[in-house]
User: What shape does this take?
Amino acid sequence: GINAEYGKQWYQRRVRGEDIDFFQHLEMHMRNESSPICGRDHLAYRSSYVPVKGVVDGDLCEVYNSLEPAKRRAVASELDRQPGEVSKKLEDMRTTYAF
Assistant: This one.
C-alpha cells in the first residue's frame, strides 16, 4: 500500500502506480504555484516533526481547484492533461478513498 494524507486523515490503500506518479507530480507543481503556508516552505512545514516520505499531501493537491483558470491550465499542461481531467482525478480520489 501507500500512505497518503488525504483530508487530514491517514489511509493505507492500494493505489495504482500511475495515480501515485500523477499525484506526486501534481503535489510538486502545487508547491510551486501556491504560496507557502505561514511563510514556511511546504516540505519544511509538513516535515517539521517527522520527515515526510512516500506521502502525498491531498490537501495541497486540492488547492488546484482554487487556482486561477490560467494557472490550472498551466499545471494541467505540465501533467499532460486537460484541467477537467485533473479535477476529475482529484474528485475520484476523494470519493474513492476519503469516504
